[in-house]
Amino acid sequence: MNQSIQAIRFLGADMIDKASSGHPGIVLGAAPVVYHLFTEHLKATSTHPKWFNRDRFVLSAGHGSALLYATLHCAGYKIGIEDLKQFRQLGSITPGHPEYGHTDGVEATTGPLGQGISMAVGMAIAESHLRAVFNREGFPLIDHDTFVLVGDGDLQEGVTMEAMSLAGHLQLDRLIVFFDSNDIQLDGPTENANSDNWALKAKSMNWHYEHVADANDLSALNQAILNAKKAGKPTLIEIKSIIGEGALKQGTSQVHGAPLGAQETERIKQALNYPLAPFSVDKAVYDDFQKHFVNRGETAYQAWELLWKDYQKAYPEAAKHLHDIMSGQITVDLSASLRILPLGTKEATRNSIGKQLDRFSELLPALMGGSADLVSSTKVHGLDGNYTKDHREGRNLNFGVREHAMGAIANGLTLHGLRGFTGGFFVFSDYLKPAIRLAALMKVPTLFLFTHDSVAVGEDGPTHQPIEQLSMFRLMPNLTCFRPADANETAYALHYGLKETDQPTLIALTRQNITVQHESSLEQVAKGGYVAIDKADYQGILIASGSEVELAIQAQEVLEKEHHIPVRVVSMPSLELFLSQPESYQESVLPKHCQARLAMEMGASGLWYQVAGKVMGIDTYGMSGPLEDVKQYFGFTSEKVVEKVQNLLKKA
């Protein structure tokens, strides 16, 4: 046992020394905790790392990645000594912070503090929901825990408080959080910035609380974990450790984020009677992990496999749905449930998304999510009732006014095999940005649905009117953004997002009604932009997204009837998708010979210059007033569009 703990400590220290970069403090201080979790409690196996019923371990304190990589190496995951030697080097599988999908055994991309524990809350929700929906008497197919390691920094982040508050309210009894409580953070003692009583704070949020006075006291830690498993609610185990234990500068911030150096590491090894050279591990350590982690997990896996085979025979319909969830596949025909409205229909796209989401949810048991206390406004909710401590089968999550945590929890749902989705006002997408960015980085298909997408919010004014948000998200790698023009484009956009497997989708929707004025198709919307209305010998092109497509068509009619100027109208629900299409397709929609182009969107104008020489946008904050007055104030009227097209053609 002691030899294995020392192996983890010094592998981590060697990695950091070789890279001349990293965080040794948590490695030296928390190694006993992670060792004990893996060898005594964590139900997982490196031979089948994606086994669905494994326990999840999330290193929320992602700066401690060397601790995780060293442990995973000893536990038999596909991380070799040479990989450890490449810690923090370009192209290695041991990057500075853990990255999901990049390194074997990593359950979530962590590092932005607070995101890991918040995603773990989503994982715990997913486990309890799936357990309630799919388990049958004698068939405990879904039966696992979610463990998290956090530091002081995690617990100081607001997103963590939101997530813990909701977890306590929901009594997530399979969620156990280890708090590496060493009283030190980067700038010095935590007392400089914090004086919280964690026993009282945890209990006030309906968490069970345990205290372990010494991280090296594994007997006390073991008892705390056993108590947690019987608590009937989430548990915070505060474990007092010494940051950088054994170093000359132990217990200070100087060992938080700077290498110890080879000389100091060697001194600690000698003091602890650990005579091995850098990156050396005694065979007894591998044997220890094989016996107490791999074999135990493999036995559990094999028993589960037999149970799963019998379950498929006994409950074939439920097994089919569960198989799709476990494999991340959508095998049903979603197109059959597309809600396509006839021309002339008026409907706010926020209403459209709610109705289409309900249809898809009836087909897909994996769809689970909700809104941040805004269902009556966003229309975004899950089916089968509210998910509560007494009704785990529900798929609607009442997030409360917790946008920060909502995004991270939805990612946790998706990481666990469900298809998490969120609902909120678009201007408050700022609160979800870290989670959306992590979804894009992790390549997970979480759905982020936002309503009240422009200054057309009206009376609520500039605090509630998004301007720069859509451009910000369009610039985010591996994220697809849609701003659909009507109910039909909305249905197609949601279909696109659900068919995605390796990137999230964001859809921005209107508060106000929009008329279905043109035909569209799934294929057209999937290309990001297409010709909505065409005219022979068109002299100019109007390009628009969202509600401005309706405005463009109105202006097109005026230009033709009153001024005898034919123009083409292009609907562009996803600018970045359009720009990713082959040049031949882009040319068919926006031919180079026609440079008289006007793009229109009630938001930041900058990105639209990629496709148009003239842009009608809004590069100031909004205004408070009735919808039509606000649109008039910013010039989004057919008269203004007609005037701009005429001026554009005069200059052509």
Structure characterization notes:
There is one protein chain. By secondary structure, this protein is of the alpha/beta class. It folds into three domains: 2-299, Rossmann fold, CATH 3.40.50; 334-515, Rossmann fold, CATH 3.40.50.970; 526-651, Rossmann fold. Helices cover 42% and strands 13% of the residues. The protein is built from 24 helices and 19 strands. Strands 1-2-3-7-6 form a five-stranded parallel sheet, with helices on both faces. It has a five-stranded parallel sheet with strand order 9-10-11-13-12, sandwiched between helices. Strand 4 (184-185) and strand 5 form a beta hairpin. Helix 2 packs parallel to helix 3. The relative contact order is 0.09.
Walk me through the topology.
Blueprint: H1 2-19, H2 24-41, E1 56-59, H3 65-74, H4 81-85, H5 115-134, E2 146-150, H6 152-156, H7 158-169, E3 175-181, E4 184-185, E5 188-189, H8 198-204, E6 208-212, H9 218-229, E7 235-240, H10 262-271, H11 283-314, H12 316-327, E8 346-348, H13 349-363, E9 367-371, H14 375-378, H15 403-415, E10 419-425, H16 433-442, E11 447-451, H17 469-474, E12 480-482, H18 487-499, E13 505-508, E14 513-515, H19 522-526, E15 530-533, E16 540-544, H20 548-563, E17 567-571, H21 575-579, H22 583-589, E18 597-600, E19 614-616, H23 627-633, H24 638-651
Parallel strand pairs: 1-2, 2-3, 3-7, 6-7, 9-10, 10-11, 11-13, 12-13, 16-17, 16-18, 18-19
Antiparallel strand pairs: 4-5, 8-14, 15-17
Helix pairs in contact: 1-2, 1-3, 2-3, 2-9, 5-7, 5-15, 7-15, 11-12, 13-18, 15-16, 20-24
